[in-house]
Amino acid sequence: MTRPSIRVRTPSELRAQRRRRPPRCLGHLCAAPLWPLHNANLGTLLRTCDAAGACLAVPRLPWVPEALARGNTLRRPACVHWVGDPPAWLARRRAEGAHVLGVELAEDAVRLADLPMARRPTVAVLGHERDGIPPEALDLLDAVVEIPMVGTGASLNVAVAGSLVLYKLAGFA
Fold first, then answer.
1. What is the pLDDT of residues 114-148, one digit of tens each?
2. Where would I find the tRNA/rRNA methyltransferase SpoU type domain in this sequence (predicted)?
3. Are 58 and 35 in contact (CB under 8 A)?
4. Cα(46)–Cα(166) distance, integer angstroms
5. Are the CB atoms for 94 and 100 separated by under 8 Å?
6. How far apart are the first and last CA of the chain?
7. pTM, whole model, 2 decimals?
8. How far is CA 1 from the centre of its chain?
9. What Rg value do the Cα atoms of the chain yield, rounded?
């Protein structure tokens, strides 16, 4: 029995088949790790934002620009929004009509598998890796999504959790 031949697509073929990214930020989809703990996660999440056609909102902390620069291996500038006051920024985005979705373990959370594709501007809020989303920001969420796990850990790191949620919101999963 012969196996079918697997043909790997070239980088130029892959680029030609990708969805076209708008030339500027439209604010449709945004990952917001507003309370980061580890700098390596920000660079990884920045790459996922680029792949999913999303922006990244990060806090104005002294170490964040260097973390993004080190992790950014993209050939063009990424869409990064700098946030001075996370709760105030979330409140403004919500007032502008964005759907503010928290990635958190909470009652009445939507399971990741049941999360629909984003049909309106959506902010995926990612909390601190140890403490989650702070209480003052929980009241600003429209909904919460939970990533089910079977292992012994309580949560995934911010880059992995954000990547899973972004791909689902972008309609890729």
1. 999 999 999 999 998 888 999 999 999 999 999 99
2. 38-167
3. no
4. 11
5. yes
6. 33
7. 0.85
8. 44
9. 17
Distance from C-alpha of 69 to C-alpha of 37, rounded to nearest angstrom: 17
d(CA 60, CA 80): 11
Q: 63-83 burial, b for 16+ CB within 10 Å, e for fewer?
A: ebeebbeebbeeeeebbbeeb
Q: Kindly state the tokens that stand for 77.
A: 């500038």
Which CATH number applies to 25-169?
3.40.1280.10
| Sign of the torsion formed by the C-alpha atoms of 131, 31, 168 and 93 | positive
**Sequence-separated contacts (24+) of 49-52 with Cβ below 8 Å:** 49/78, 49/79, 49/166, 50/74, 50/78, 52/166, 52/167, 52/169, 52/170, 52/172
- pLDDT for 44-63, tens place per residue? 899 899 888 899 999 999 99
